[in-house]
What does this fold into?
Amino acid sequence: MELRDFLRRLDYSRLAITFDGVAAGSIEERVQSIMEAGDVVPAMHQANVGAVAAEHGGDVQSATILRQHAMLLTAIYRIAEDMGYEW
It folds into this structure.
């Protein structure tokens, strides 16, 4: 599947439902899911490293935003898998 075809089929409702599913898991499940997706999308690892660095620097807001980015990318990864995309 080409990226443009995937993006045309990516609607907000499905994205929100999948994001909520990722967020609803235990911390261990979330981390596992993000790490698995991060093996394919390096930006996820970068967001997580940035979140840890922000936390250590006392910047909770930036850490929260970066973690949300990682979860959003994980949701997109999961939707692509559901659509049959092969990594």
In short: Helices lie at 3-9, 12-24, 27-38, 42-56, 60-82. Residues 60-82 form the longest helix (23 residues). The CA atoms of residues 15 and 75 lie 7 Å apart. The mean pLDDT is 91.
